[in-house]
Please model this.
Amino acid sequence: NTPTVVTGQVGNAASFGATKALRRTSYTRLDGKAQVTWMFFIKITTATAWVAPASQYDGNTTASDWVIDLRASGLKLNLVVVDGSDWNRQIVTDSDVFSLNTIHHVRVQYDGSQGTNLDRAKFWVDGTEITAKTATSTLPATIKATTAKVLDIGSSDNTLYSVVGWVDEMGIWSANLSDADADLHRLETGLPY
Model:
């Protein structure tokens, strides 16, 4: 079930809905990493809780690695990083950060080396950092190494939770990017690195 191609923020975008995702098997580039940055443009046409712009997540089990998803109203931003014993380690924005039918630029930054749990996940929407957030428990120090995980763009849990809308220019870096580097992506003037 592949997504359809639509006009996006930069050229074409992948439009999702009802069990569609871009999938890459055996994605191991984030295994054991303590710092990761995800950036993308998203347009949500229907607010649905639990849908995921990006994930390596196979359901609510410790076999999963991580997921960026939309919580509660479907307009809150959430990062889950799974450790070997608990799949429910997450940090979520306290309020809605997206508007329907509006193109947003999203930056999610994970840094397992931070001593303060809320500093282990940082969120930016349209270049503005979202500081009002809540943690359910402490995020682990690294993304765990697992065997042959699937990278899903536009969905999680084997396409069970697909974005209703589109995702464009998904980028994943195994480093924390500076604001200047992130602006290259957000302002469409270049790509970091």
User: Anything to note?
Assistant: The mean pLDDT is 87. The two ends are 32 Å apart (CA to CA).
